[in-house]
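Q: Could you predict the 3D structure of Sugar ABC transporter substrate-binding protein?
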Amino acid sequence: MFSNDATWSRTLRVAVPLGALALILVGCSGGAADTNADGDGGTKVAAVIKGLDNPFFQAMEDGITDTAKTDSVDVTVQAAADVGDTSGQADKLSALAGQDFGCFVINPISGTNLVQALSQVSTAGKAIVNIDSPIDPDAAATANLNISTYIGTDNEAAGGKAGDFISEQVPAGSKIAIIGGIAGDVTSAARVDGFRAAASGLDVVQETAADWKREVALTAATDIIAANPDIAAFFAANDDMGLGIVKAIENANRTGEIVVVSVDGNKDALESVQDGGLTATVAQYPYAIGALGLQACEVVAAGGTLPKSIESPTALVTADVAVDAIDMFPQPFEEFENPLTELLNK
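A: Sure. Here are the predicted C-alpha cells for Sugar ABC transporter substrate-binding protein:
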C-alpha cells in the first residue's frame, strides 16, 4: 500500500495504479500562477491537466507534485481554469509545446481539444503520456500523434460496479435516473454505458447531462424527483454531480430514501458516504494516476518502452469502508501492484 515515506518511491511506486510516488512535478496552476521545480536529472516534464475546481484533479496534481519531490525531477504543471475550459487548456499546452520539455503528461478536457497543440509536440519527437481522459483515437491518427501510453480507469467497468451495486439495493424494475457529464464526452459515455449494461433490470426514466457540475446536477435532480416521486436511485458519472443529487434529495426531505452512487472517490464524496448522503462512490485513484503519468515519463527518459495502455484500478466505497478510504486519502486504500515497477527499477 502507499506510504508517505520517500522510500516507497521505487518499491511501492507501483503499489497503486500508479503508485502515489514521486515523479516529476512540483508546480501547478489553475489558471492563475504556474509553478515548477528543478530536479537533478532526467528529462524536463510538462503536465497539462483539467481544472482544479474539481477535487479529483486536485488529487491528481498532488500525486504529480509529491512524486516530483521524491524523484527530484524538473517539472511544470499547468491546469485549465475550470473543467470546461477547453480553449484555455489548449492555449496553455501550445505555450509549453515549443519549450525544452522532453515529455508531456496530458489530461485533456475533451477527446480533441489538445490535438492541434500536441501535433507540434509529436512532430518534435517528444513523448506524450495521456492520462485519465483519452485522446480521440481517430483525431490522433489524423494528426499523426505518437502517444507513448494511456493511463486511466476502465470507465465502463467503473460504471458497471455502480450498476451492479444499485441493482442489489433496489427491487427489479425500479425507476432510476442517470446524470452524465458533458454530452458527447468519451469518459461520461463509457461510465453510463457500463452502468446501463449492469443495471439492465431497472427502469431508466431519464438520462441527462449536467456538465460535470454540482449545481447543474442539483437542478436536474430536483426536476427529476418532482416528476418521478417514486424514483428509487440515481447514478452520477462523477462525485460532484452525485453530491448535487444528494442536495436535491435533502431539499425534497427524501434523505435515506433514494440510492445515489457516483464515480471518483473524492474526499468530500467519501465523507458524504460516511455521513449517509451518497450511498456509495466508485473510487478511482487520481493521486496514483498523476504519479503514474510522471513515472511513465521517467521510464521514457531512461530509454524504456512503455505498454500502450495501463489500467488504474477502482474500488467501490460504501459506508462500511468509508473511514478506511478517508484515512488513506488521497492515496488508495486498497493494495495493488504498480505496473511500472520493473521498468522503473531497470
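Q: Anything worth pointing out?
A: The chain has two domains: 8-147+285-313+331-344, 155-283.
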